[in-house]
Design goal:
By secondary structure, the protein is α+β, with helices and mostly antiparallel strands. Helix content is 69%, strand content 7%. The protein has eleven helices and five strands.
Length: 312
Amino acid sequence: MSYAFKLSCLSLAAFFLVHLAAGMAAGWATPRAIRMAGRMQARAAARFLLTVRFAPLALAGFVVAVLCVPSYVWFEPDVDAEEVGWLCLIAASLSLAIWALSFARTARAVLKSRRWLRQAEAREVRLAGENVWIAKGSAVAVAGFLRPRVLLSSPVLRVLSPEQLDVALRHERSHSASRDNLKRLLFLLTPDPLPFFRGTFLGLECAWKKFAEWAADDCATGGDQERALLLADALVQVARIDSVLRTPVLVTSLVDGDLTARVERLLRPAPEGAPDRWTPAACSVGALAVAVVILQPGALAAVYAMLERLIR
């Protein structure tokens, strides 16, 4: 095998094994993470769950880029006679498989969103001092992940009062400012621990979507109970129009999520949750652990020894 091929196989195999172990650990910790998020502020909870979801990918990418590749390039002589073992080849193949599936899943979602936008026939207009898009049968939604746009339908403009429309637009602008559609795209793009094994993080992703909606509700109302009542009424009114519509995964609708829970939360606001102290603490501990590992004199040599065992 050529030197470049061996390095590619090792990188893919190491990524798969580290990502699998970290993904299984994150999947096991998901119920506890969701319970912890329930005691936080909505925006902090969404940020915390996002961190948990992307942690396996970040860890696996770090191990490959900072430990595996440098150690192999530094210690491995440039010879082509060495063979690659079956374990390494299988792990590398599985790594390619999970990435291929995630790219295919993402491509399908992007195509569905573009098709939905074409069917909506949106046109840009100036409304209440800002640019919005009037669409055919789209109710209230945010579409696009690089340049998100707020879409309204004519029935919504007829049904909602100016005050209700204002608070609904505040909700959608919050999604747009938070880049929630881009985060949904990254959820799709992040590979699963094993091919055809989507169940590991579905609960965590659903919980993130719930808290993302709650965070947008909080941003729209700003703690004002009158605005909360207006938004609750707007949700009910739009749900009647939007009841038969199914928006693609990369389009965030005003009536996404558990509508009953959202309306009850707006009508009977609970005490504000705690800020997210776990994500900064976890990042600090992780950065300290990384520094300790990298600064060890024999760290790369130890990693190279493990890679040699893996490749054989």
